[in-house]
Write a structure and sequence with these properties.
about 30% helix; two-stranded antiparallel ribbon; globular; about 160 residues
């Protein structure tokens, strides 16, 4: 995000954002700014998260697909973001050839179940990359919202009792 945009948002919200990178929760580097008043949002990540390493290997669908790298860069709306770095290296090797990650593999990398979007053939990779380029990483959101658990742990799910 350009500094100019971040300053405008911070000015209107009267606060600075927290920067959280999905690389601490998944095999994707995806630094994002979060503004909010959720308890713990600005607390530094604990060492076990800062030192954790994740691999794309568990996300790969077939045994014939092998990781060419452990982590991938940020998936954006550009189809080229599925390739890695300036050299456009493929993050996956299949049958001796470089390949990009498949939609179901990207879904899993974002912390969602496979076939979460159930894309049609027409939607395919173009629509998926547009969707994922704008998405939040579910493990990051889960981490941010986990601090709210104590506020709801005593809440009753039984709404049928009469007063």
């Amino acid at each position: 995000m350009p500094l100019e945009y971040r300053k405008v948002i911070s000015r209107f919200l009267q606060m600075e954002p927290a920067l959280i990178d999905a690389k601490h929760f998944s095999p994707q580097s995806r630094p994002r700014f979060f503004w909010g008043n959720i308890p713990g949002l600005f607390t530094p990540l604990p060492p076990h998260l800062l030192n954790s390493e994740h691999s794309i290997a568990p996300c790969l669908v077939l045994p014939s697909r092998q990781p060419a790298t452990d982590q991938v860069g940020c998936v954006t709306t550009s189809r080229n973001s599925l390739r890695q770095g300036r050299l456009s290296l493929s993050p996956v090797v299949m049958d001796g050839q470089g390949d990009v990650m498949w939609i179901t593999e990207i879904e899993q990398m974002f912390g969602l179940p496979r076939h979460y979007n159930r894309p049609s053939a027409a939607w395919a990779l173009r629509g998926a990359s547009s969707c994922w380029g704008r998405a939040w990483s579910a493990p990051v959101v889960r981490h941010i919202l986990s601090s709210l658990t104590p506020f709801f742990s005593g809440a009753s799910s039984d709404t049928s009792s009469a007063a």
